[in-house]
Amino acid sequence: MKGKWALVIWIGLLLIALWTAGLGREAVLNPYGFQSLSAFLARAFSPEVNVSFLSLIAEASLKTLAFALCATLLALFLGFIGGILRSHFWWHNCLESKNASFISSFFGYLFGIPAAIHEVIWALFFLSLIGLDMMVGVFAIAIPFGAMATKVFSQFLDDVDPAPTNFLIQNGTSPVLAFFYGAFSQAFPNMVSYSFYRFECALRSAAVLGIIGAGGIGYQIQISLSSLKYGELWTGFYALILLNGCVDFLSSRIRKIFGFLGSNDNGQRKKSSTPDLSRTYLALVAFFLCTLSVLLSLWFLSPDLSKWGRIFTQFHAFSGTLSAKGIVDSFTISHVVLSLDTFSMSVIAMTIAGIFGVLFSFPAALNMFSANGVLMQPKRKWGVVLYVVTRFFLLVWRAIPAPIIALVLLFAMYPSILAGALALAIHNIGILGRLNAEVNEHMEERNARYLRQIGSSSLSVYLYAILPMNVRAYLGYVFYRWEVCIRETLLLGLVGAGGLGLLLSEEFSSFDNNGALVTVAVFVGLTLIVNAFGRRLVPA
Amino acid sequence: MLCEVAHRFGDKYALKNISLSIERGERVAIIGPSGSGKSTLLNLMQGVLEPTKGQVFLKGHLLQSAKLPFDIRQKVGKMPQDNHLVGRLAVVHNLNGGRLADWPFWKSMLSLLFPQDLEPLKEMMKTLGLPEALLFQRTEELSGGEQKRIALGRVLLQRADLIFADEPVASVDPERARSVLSLLCAADERGRTLVASLHEVDLARTFFDRIIGLREGRIIFDLPRNEIQATHFNDLYRLEDTLS
């Protein structure tokens, strides 16, 4: 779609969303809650540091980490296989199929369904089938994350230069080998990068699953919040930030070791001094460490596998509570109204996050404002400070899950679509800011540096060299996040911010399985519509 | 063999009614000004492009009717203009690209982690005049000329009996160009057929025994080397002469 039409459509959607959210018609701020909010904020500098609580948080953090690690590796395995099946590249270039578009679209829709169902729903579903078990969280995260990874991995594969693979296919190499030598080798750095991003997401999701009782750090945060122990709450937040920060740091270090990124201060692509063979050994070491950590995680989580053996019997019993009449009767006009609320929440959130995610991405990119950065006058040093501060705030915003941000915001705001949208927006600014910063850091800098050298202003460099080159990637991430965001609206409903999530939480608490199934189906439908629509809005 | 082949990009014909046949063991140079259709002709011969009109046979197989069998593909080597190397992979893996079709699956997969059977590659690096140490260097870190030679090494390692080379010496200095063509033509001594597109008339006359002149999508001449006169080239490049 042409950019200007995408913009017009988005502005139209935003106006509808703001009207639906009742902006200007309903009270948003709760003046009575400011006291609680200030009490909460005041404890930011004096978190609970009691040794027994710290050891509790440490154990909960380890549990969350173990969840996230096992779930991520399972998700990446599913995502890799599914990503190949979902890619047009595999069918068209490797297998030379004439029906490549049809087959890849089929897999796209197939994997779209589990991806559209939020991990919380999967967790509630598994909990209802087998009861409380540590592997509930792992599977609940791995299934939707794996399905989501199929989409991103397939896009990475579809974006590689097809010429080397075509060359190998034409000289008689088998499709699988041509794929690994010609395409996978090109997509691998992006896949590694995305895998770490997914690991971060899994950490946040593992924390969220704690809120619904799956254990870990989210569970501790929930307990502290419900008992209004703000000091403990902040300790929990700092633990989450530390966990995310460590993964972030590890991710960038590993990618650097493998030579996957970076521009140096002169804007030249860094030539890796590490010969390729040693990178191979490093990959093997990384693989070994991953396997070891998964085994350790499984030992730590100590799953009860006998429960999982009964899953099919339990599923049969669960399906016995469903009836066609019950399902039909459960569908009401409120599903349509609440869908509009959910949709509006996501549109408002993504508009705010999209704008601020781009703005924050510049100070958060090392090649922009650092000394000799493309947007910095030479010899000015304050860019590094700006970089560190921005990166820290982005880390904080993305480390704390949106429902927890919403719970905090609800101190000072009435439960509403706007409160939910704001929580989602804050969380997504943290994510988009970082993703866009990576886009900035990986961009081809020659044009920008040329404009800089001939004396152009920073604004001109931005408008003529950076924006045209990166805008598609920024928008791609916004629409990708929109799909994730609409899933997260469900969680915000569970904490009272409205939309379909609120209805679903009521249906779960009243054991209305028919109603819950209809709401989940409506929600999946809405997510699939947003997926299809979002893809069309990305400018060609 | 090409029978009455034409190819069109949009409304513009890149090739018009081309018919030619190349025999086993021939060294054929296709020359002509930029945009004359050399690359299109080579791509049609290899089955990379499907002709708008006419038929192309490669080793007796009608190219557009079905996929070329894998055993035939293994015997056809290609040296594309843009090399088609994977920049992120080490040189060793790109060179192995020429041998994968001969290797068992697991040996190829394992070789991606632990490169196998390095002796022929070391020999090839010597033949190409490149230091052995480059084998484990990322290919994208090599110069354009070095990458061109790696692409050449890959096609030579393939042991193909027919090689298509699309401007194999473009962006290579004159001395290096001669060594690249010497290596390609040395392949011919082992009974291989070589079809290459070139810009350099002198090189075509030195290294090839049949020269096809192409201009504006038509064959202007198709003659053995010893029948080629200076007037043929003048006629072929007359537009350039006028401009200069």
Word description of this protein:
The complex is a heterodimer of chains A (540) and B (244). By secondary structure, chain A is mostly helical. Chain A folds into 2 domains: 55-315, MetI-like (MetI-like fold); 333-537, MetI-like fold (Orthogonal Bundle), CATH 1.10.3720. In chain A, 79% of the residues lie in helices and 0% in strands. Chain A is built from 24 helices and no strands. Chain A has helices spanning 3-21, 34-42, 51-86, 88-94, 100-116, 119-130, 134-159, 163-170, 175-214, 217-226, 230-257, 276-301, 305-309, 311-320, 324-330, 333-361, 366-369, 382-399, 402-409, 417-442, 446-453, 458-494, 500-509, 513-537. In chain A, α9 (175-214) packs antiparallel against α11, α15 packs across α24 and α22 runs parallel beside α23 (500-509). Chain A is globular and about 65 Å long. In chain A, 49% of the residues are buried. With 244 residues, chain B is an alpha/beta fold. Helix content of chain B is 36%, strand content 24%. Chain B is built from 10 helices and 10 strands. Chain B has helices spanning 38-46, 70-73, 91-96, 105-113, 119-128, 144-157, 174-188, 201-207, 230-236, 238-243, and strands spanning 2-9, 12-20, 27-31, 53-58, 61-62, 76-79, 162-166, 193-198, 210-215, 218-224. Chain B has a 6-stranded mixed sheet with strand order 6-7-8-3-9-10, with helices on both faces. In chain B, β1 (2-9) and β2 form a beta hairpin.
